Amino acid sequence: MIERTPSPRRAGLFCVAVAALAWLACHTVGFAQTAHVHDSSLPHNIPNLCAAATIKSVASGRWSDPGIWSTKRLPANGDLVVVAASTVVTYDRQSDEPLACVGVSGTLKFDQDLKTRLKVGTLMVMPEGYLEIGTERQPVGGNASAEIVIADRPIDLTNDPEQYGTGLIGLGRIRIHGVPKVPTFSRLTREIATGARNLPIQDRPRGWMPGDRLIVPDSKQWAIESGRPYVPEWETPTVSAISESAVTVDALKFDHPGARNGDDTIEFLPHVGNLSRNVIVRSENPSGTRGHVIFVARADVDVRYALFKDLGRTTIAPLNNTTFSGSRVTNVGTNQLGRYSLHMHHVVGPQQPPQGGYQYTLIGNALDGGLKWGITIHDSHYGLVKDNVVYDFQGVGVMTEDGSESYNVIEHNFVVRVRGTGAERADRRQDTNDWGYEGSAFWFRGPNNVVRDNVAANTNSFGYAYVHLGVKNVDVPKSAGSDKTRVTDMTLLPLREFARNELYAAVNGLTLWNVMASCCTRVFEGPESLIRDFRAWHISRYGMYNYGMNHVTFDGWVQRGDKRVLANSHEFLIGLWFDDYPARNVIVRRADIQNLRTGIAVPAKPGDVNDIYGSQPGTLLIEDSLLRNHNNVLISTMYAVTGGGPALPPRQTIIRNVTFKTVSGPVGDAPQHAIAMRFRPRGNNLNLIQRDEVSVENYNGVAGDTFRVYYLEQAPAFVIPNNLGRVTRSPVAGLTNQESWKGFGIAIGGAVAPCSQTRPEIQGFVCSGTPLPSPQAPPRRSSPGPRAPDDRQREQPGTGSAGVAK
Questions:
Q1: What are the Cα distances from residue 73, in Å, to 55, 64, 68, 111, 152?
Q2: Mean pLDDT of 515-532
Q3: How many CA atoms does the CB half-sphere of 174 hold within 13 Å?
Q4: Residue 744, H or E segment
Q5: pLDDT tens for residues 625-636?
Q6: What's the CA gap between 683 and 634, in Å, rounded?
Q7: Half-sphere exposure in the Cβ direction for 758 (13 Å, CA)
Q8: Which residues contact 208 (CB under 8 A, 6 or more apart)?
């Protein structure tokens, strides 16, 4: 959300946004000319929608006591209610009578031993106010419940043109604690078939109850290129009974398979999540005026085990925001940004960090049904987002919005069914600062958060997206609770932590934009980013897609495909796809990738001579790994979408201590290869003659089996093509490699193959030669600022063995 009157530290971003919004206003037919009449001292121009109170508390007591109210009656339909400062009101009703607004300047406590319900248009917790719906020590009781229903009321566009109202607005202290559901999600211990009623799970369920609504993801691999439409097979059964190790539900409608390795041994199984809570915030009418939840500025927020149902008004359609000329409204937004299901909006938090050090806490909640984003973290820092279940959203499940977000711990969350536009590129709307519409589970605009142990399924774009665009100069707090900031270039920071995350039954896996890089010709020197122990299975296209990176290590990457899909040659399931954007100084270590079309596709653009390394080779090291795919390592002649051609530097691919196996079963018409050297004289900005070295050491684990690999087109008698348009080639047409090398020092791949020996499983010449030296290690990581409260880097990365893990 962009403030109409920005603070000095946001001024630069505000100017860019105003230009975009001005364009939008000029291209909107019939925009309004409503006067912006309210005058609020609240942050971000939030109006005090309860200011004209019709009833106030004049004493402490129970809500149902007429004596505590200024009118000597209970609040009624349409009232604007204020819980006055210095009063403590205990809410003890179960009412369907809609109030227009409840403003909390004192304390509003829900009786944690009763079934309560409050229906209200807008619930505002003012900066001095306190809302308590259970606490960590005394949550709302197991036989009790608390419900806030956001009434289906029209938004007051005169007093609230930016549409903050009709929702829960928290600026003060908020404590919401339902009965813990532990775990909030758990992995199945066996595959489930259609008609099953017993769901065996790894963890003993505590707090799960008959009547709870579960989510069981679709776990099949969609054969996306086969021409068959996607048929969703996630489902939400209801619990009828619970035991120590299983839950009984109504009969399931679909199979829920696991993932197998090349020997057909099951290694991964899907999960079951619990969507029910006894504290609920929901919209009265999901098809009417939906509510939203937003916490702002110095809000002190601790929300645990609550359900946020059918909330959020902002959609994945292009944004249309309210705009102003001075104080006059020039356009009333029809798709106002910032009205999400659960939104941490510029939350600085309390000046004194609470015990544990987190500036805000979101633990164990369920979010069910939203039009764009689920948990949104916007310019908010030092928070803990853990054990949440996010289901059925249309843009992103967990979002960091502007890239400044730092030191948050995003840990062990479960995101299922995010179906956006399905785009693979995240930058199509960047001119209007519109992001996260594609359909991704986790989406990060910056690198500076801890992201670990999360699970995602059923996304139609990527599961995890790091999109570092427009983040060269953002403001990061100097310490927890401080509103003093320092300007930081996020493209110069490594990923703070990305470890042990999992994704399955999705279109694409992980995408990395501008990790120590600026797409599409520059990279920066700096510390290593570590992608550690990632688990991806039943992914339809790309396990990882690169949009610019430097000094990135993939340690313990495990990926499994359904090898039955490979029978159709059109299915191009990929593991690590570095291909056509800059990728320098990359290491793949202890990978275990099986049952895909291509395990690893090496960088087609290993750098650019315009970058800081000049003509120094770009390197990819693959070591201590197991690859069992149709093409295990795919090496194609170099090209680039932008730049490229003569600007491409040499490339070195080092393959060390890697075991290669073949897929058992049909893989289409083409032969299987351990290493495939593909001469592809097509595409943009080719360079066929740049030095392109491939070194193999201890092939298939055999000590001393070391050699170099060359393209078959590096044979002495091969004639270098000279009719391919923008291709770097020999200056004289019709010359062979041998002739061109003798006359000009030019040959395909920068060398003439010194032998003609081959091996059946390697596409290319296999020649003896000394191994290439190991690439230089990146600089040791220096701390890019303060640590998150639990910002630990575990010292023992995974082994690359999949296993059935939690």
A1: 9, 9, 9, 20, 24
A2: 91
A3: 31
A4: helix 737-744
A5: 999 999 999 999
A6: 17
A7: 13
A8: 181, 239, 242, 247, 274
